[in-house]
Specification:
- The protein is mainly beta.
- About 10% of the residues lie in helices and about 60% in strands.
- The protein contains five helices and 26 strands.
- The strands form two sheets. It has a 23-stranded mixed barrel.
Length: about 500
């Protein structure tokens, strides 16, 4: 049975009262222990108003509570997805549509044993090498301002941060080398188990050398359920019985002030083959004011089933992003960066049993100092090449975007604008926001609108207004957000 917001609020209130007792200084011994750190309350709501059909006006609510202790982190969130008033019938009807709560807790046992050990349980999400097994290819974003290459290895598990999503119940165990082992500080292993039977484990070794040089190596393996989602015998893959299959990942990196390289090899057992492989490499080279980021991805062929039961459509990728930065002598520490980026992909289409290439480019300039930041970028996407049809720019899209942010005491005003156009459609958007940064109170107010045209005629548009605030005391933090979107 789905939990209602009302019951969740009651439970959270009772829980908050119990948490607050953990800080009551009943004795000198209790003051010394000082287990309780802070408790966070958060509430947000969003409304959608389609002016063409006001009967479809909808409302969504998200609420949560988080309690932080010296060695523990406990969270619970509840959400009501966007529900039309017409469907809800009444305000009480919204609560009947509440989603299952997202919750979790982590406990550090480092104070009781000689090495860092953290236990987590709840509706956890797994990232790192776990998510790389599901999506081994490079991201398709091509930013001319990318600055770094991630060198994180192994599995990372995260507690929920909102009531959205439908994560399954899971548990994880993370153990690390003691900090006294300075040469291997950060090394360890993680075990992750999900209620549906999915299991994964990783071990990673990190070695730190003098002069900001580090190297690492990681092994990840697990079992994942591959489901045959095709109802046709004439699909891309031969018919197979849904079952458990293994997947493995090997990651290795080296990092220094001038060069960073992150490499990964994934292996997947398949219904029709002993193993299939993917290869991924991300690198960064810095020579004075010049920085070059280059990355590549390759699969050993078509039809690889990844760990989320989807077929990998990307066969190869090459991404290059050079940058040049000028730094000027001034108390405000100004800098000017010129950058570019390109992404070439080779993809596969099962319906036509053919491969094709796509191209994406970007150019940009960015200025930043202690008081302001401004950037201007241009992106061209959607160029396709195939042996059968040659080059094609019918689906190409061109986007120009600009952003400006400044700091005026406690105020942080910013403006973002973009314009995209293709042979058949175009769109424009602008967003203005103002943030105030206080010692205890922070607020953000934003307003924006967007327009879309198709074949030189107006198609649709929307306007958004939002306000958020956070008030922090020594032991309690309150966060509130409300937003409304009008569609016309």
């Amino acid at each position: 049975m789905k939990c209602s917001i009302k019951n969740a609020v009651r439970a959270c209130t009772a829980f908050a009262a119990l948490c607050s007792l953990a800080h009551v200084p009943l004795t000198a011994e209790s003051r010394a222990i000082d287990l309780f750190r802070r408790i966070d309350f958060s509430v947000s709501s969003s409304a959608s108003l389609p002016f063409k059909d006001m009967a479809q006006t909808s409302l969504g609510i998200n609420a949560g509570i988080r309690a932080l202790f010296r060695d523990a982190d406990v969270r619970i969130y509840e959400a009501i997805p966007a529900t039309p008033f017409e469907k809800a019938g009444s305000f009480a009807g919204f609560f009947k549509n509440a989603a299952l709560p997202q919750y979790g807790a982590s406990l550090s046992l480092q104070r009781f044993i000689t090495f860092p050990l953290t236990v987590k349980a709840g509706t956890l999400s797994a990232s790192g090498s776990f998510s790389r097994l599901a999506s081994p290819e490079l991201t398709t974003a091509v930013s001319p301002f990318t600055k770094s290459v991630s060198t994180k290895t192994g599995i990372a598990t995260l507690l929920p941060s909102s009531g959205n999503g439908k994560k399954q119940l899971a548990a994880s165990l993370d153990v690390r080398f003691p900090k006294s082992w300075k040469l291997f500080d950060g090394s360890g292993g993680t075990v992750y188990y999900r209620a549906d039977g999915t299991f994964a484990a990783s071990t990673d070794f990190l070695i730190k050398f003098p002069r900001m040089i580090a190297a690492g190596f990681s092994l990840t393996g697990g079992r994942f359920f591959l489901e045959n989602k095709s109802s046709s015998w004439f699909s891309e893959m031969p018919f197979f019985k849904s079952s458990w299959f293994g997947a493995f990942a090997v990651q290795a990196f080296v990092s220094s002030p001038h060069f960073t390289a992150m490499n990964a090899v994934n292996a997947y057992t398949q219904p029709d083959a002993p193993a299939r492989f993917t290869f991924r490499s991300e690198n960064k080279l810095t020579l004075g004011k010049f920085t070059m980021l280059f990355a590549g991805f390759a699969a050993d062929g078509t039809g690889i089933f990844t760990t989320d039961s989807t077929t990998l459509r990307t066969l190869a990728q090459v991404r290059v992003a050079p940058q040049y930065t000028w730094r000027f002598a001034s108390p405000r520490l100004p800098s000017l960066t010129l950058g570019a980026g390109s992404l070439t992909q080779r993809k596969y289409t099962a319906t036509t049993n053919s491969a094709y290439e796509t191209e994406k480019f970007s150019l940009g300039a960015q200025y930043a100092d202690k008081q302001l930041a401004a950037r201007l970028s241009f992106t061209a996407d959607g160029f396709e090449f195939s042996r059968s049809e040659g080059a094609s720019a019918q689906n190409s899209t061109y986007t120009v975007s600009a952003q400006f942010t400044t700091a005026q005491g406690k105020l942080r005003p910013s403006v973002r604008a973009s314009c995209a156009f293709s042979s058949s459609a175009s769109s424009q958007s602008i967003k203005v926001s103002l943030a105030t940064l206080g010692k205890k109170l922070t607020t953000t107010t934003s307003a924006g609108f967007s327009l879309k045209q198709k074949k030189n005629a107006y198609d649709s548009g929307n306007a958004t207004l939002s306000f958020s605030a956070a008030y922090t005391t020594k032991f309690i933090k309150y966060a509130f957000k409300v937003s409304a979107t009008g569609k016309y």
